[in-house]
Amino acid sequence: MKKFILSLLILTSTFGFSQVYTQLGARSNAIGGASLSLNDVWSVYNNPGAFGSLEKTAIGVSYENRFLLKELSTQSLAFGYHTEKAGNFGIHFQQYGFNLYREMQGGLTYGMRFYDNFSGGVSINYHRISLGENYGSKNSVSAALGLYYDMNDQLKFSMRVLNLNRAKLAADQDERLPTTFSLGLMYEFSDKAFWTIDAEKDLVHPLNVKSGLEIRPHEIFSVRLGLQTYPFQAAFGFGLQFSQFHLDMSSMWHSQLGLSPSAGIHYEFK
Q: Rounded to the nearest 5 degrees, what angle is found at the Cα of 46, between the Cα atoms of 166 and 30?
């Protein structure tokens, strides 16, 4: 069992997922994680700046089964409360792993529209990693900052910094949570199709470029494609919208490790 835990930790750190999640939600997964410029309820974590442009109160849940291993599954919750004058308030929670190795993260987010086309936001996140068999746990707190600029009907720009305070996991070895810098761009061809691209870089790993395309051939149905470069993964998925209710399904594919399917639902209040 200890060998399995060690292998799990190596796999987790290899792909840069440990402790600081890059993006959340099945819609984000379907477009390769390139969701910095999306202002849906998942922006409460994906980009606090875009969260400042959230126009409706909403709640969402999602589940990802990474590489079809239940021990690597992630459950997520996001809630965003929209106000007309005081900005938007949100909470999010994620859980990853199983009883012998578990990561948990939760946070509070505040975003505000400063002008008609510009918004920003901050997020305070609590992280916990626990090992079974009396190995103990580690806790830390990080901060995130995001900006979002809606230039015109076609172009949107975004920026985000995760763990800008470089929170520590272990003081004796100066082990820190990854600090990640991201830039995003979205081009809307029409109200039925858009293309988005994000560039993401932390202090250790190579640049990761993410890109995705969403096409809505019908008002209730969307098709999505995406990819990312580090590690290289392809993605696909679809979405269904029935009034305020949204259902998203997606899967990311790694050439060596296989599929990581995910599903999510969210509801927008009137």
A: 130
